[in-house]
Amino acid sequence: MKISHQLIAAICSLAAFFPTWTHARDWNTIKESGTLIAATEGAFFPFNYFEGPKLTGFEVELAEAVAKEMGLKIEWKALAFDAQVASIRQDRFDFAIASHGYTEDRAKAVDFANPHYCTGGVIAAHTDGPLTVKALQGKTVGVQVSTSYLDNAKKIPGIKELKTYKADPEAFSALKARKTDAWISDKWLIKSTLEKNADAGIVSGEQVFVERVSMILNKNNTDLKEQWNIALVKVMSSGNYLKMSQKYFRTDISCN
Ligand code: ARG
After folding, report:
1. Are residues 113 and 123 in the same domain?
2. How far apart are CA 50 and CA 43, in angstroms?
């Protein structure tokens, strides 16, 4: 039988359209392997960042503690923040923990575990810059791409220009160099970043919105989500969570 060229071409273009034809690893498979495969970004200080070649931070330590409760180790993958939701849908790893705030849009694409911290987006600017939502009128604002800061900044009327950056440190650098007038990011990240860069002349201002942050995973991976949630409760009630929260933030950032 002769297969037509058109048929071959059609099959090839279908294969290109679905480059990773994979399935979410179910809980039993994960448990048997002994290792969770997790993604984070590595550029969201102090939640997930690199110390030399090593991934660390509050979320990295927390995920490792949760995994330990589950009797598992974690194999980390560092991935650009804006690629994470799509990569989960392609089952490139079991979950991502990179400060994803719950949004209805994201919840259409992926599942959210129970929140591991509560936070919000705040404005940062030079001491003489716009530090309130109102003062952002006519100003240039920098935010990380694909974030809730971008979504919420879009709702602020009168902003002259929204500049997006691949990662948050670039948005901070742009503000320092006065390429933007203000930066919107996570309230704990801004606090920690400004403490570490006290000579930058940048201060934090008004809070723009609140959000609850969770690890995200593929839909229909309910067992993994439940196991994570159970282990998270244990890490939170054992005092281990508080110890990590105090270490990174000198306060309890949980939603309790
Ligand atoms: N919390 C924000 C959001 O949900 C930003 C998260 C950015 N995370 C990161 N690792 N850069 O959109």
Report:
1. no
2. 7
Same domain, 54 and 124: no
Tokens (6 digits) for 138: 């006519």
Query: Is the CB of residue 111 below 6 angstroms from any atom belonging to ligand 1?
Result: no
In a domain, 11, yes or no: no
Question: How many Å lie between the centroid of ligand 1 and the Cα of residue 1?
Answer: 54
Query: Ligand 1 pocket: which of 79, 88, 99, 106 to mutate (most atoms <8 Å of CB)?
Result: 99
pTM score of the predicted model: 0.91
Q: Is the pLDDT of residue 48 over 90?
A: yes
- H-run or E-run covering 233: helix 222-237
Q: Which domain holds residue 170?
A: 118-211
Cα–Cα–Cα angle for 84, 85, 87, rounded to 5 degrees: 65
Q: Is the beta carbon of 46 within 6 A of some atom in ligand 1?
A: no
Specify the ligand 1 atom closest to the Cα of 40: 10
* Shared-domain flag, residues 226 and 171: no
In a shared domain, residues 229 and 188? no
DSSP 100: E
If you take atom 6 of ligand 1, which residue's CA is the nearest one? 99
* Residue range 95-130, pLDDT digits in tens: 999 999 999 999 999 999 999 999 999 999 999 999
- Do 206 and 235 lie in one domain? The reply is no
How many domains, the chain?
2
Q: Give the span between the Cα atoms of 220 and 218, in whole angstroms.
A: 6
What percentage of the chain exceeds 70 in pLDDT? 91
94 within domain boundaries? yes
The string of pLDDT tens digits covering residues 69-93 is 999 999 999 999 999 999 999 999 9
